[in-house]
Amino acid sequence: MNIFGKILDKLGFDKPKEEEAPKEKPQMSSAEDAAERAERLERIKANYAARSSKEISVVDVEAKLDKMAAENPEELNWKVSIVDLLKLLDLDSSYEARKELAIELGCPAEKMEDSAEMNTWLHKTVLEKLAENGGNIPMELLD
Length: 143
Known about the structure:
Layout: H1 3-10, H2 30-53, H3 61-71, H4 82-88, H5 95-105, H6 109-112, H7 115-132, H8 139-142
């Protein structure tokens, strides 16, 4: 199981459809990444609008992670840190694991060269992918 699949599993998501399951993607340029991110946010907004108009299975990611954080002896802030998010889910948060996840999700090469930029990109992308798969993520964390 890929790393993102493990994240979905830990949060109680149904298995994503094959075409939605992240596979190792070729690295993109920052411009291609920005265009893909804009398209992804539009899909997320449309999904959120559809949820309010009909019954759609939603995983309340925010509530689950907040509960896990409250029960964890470490002070972890999953809303801003990919490391804390992975730790809350009891997944490997090492640089090597984060780099592997970034490659899996198609992080632009220039962001991979700087661990802080990679982590920021990775955190935002993971939250967006969770929302795409039916996760209830606050919009302020996605913009």
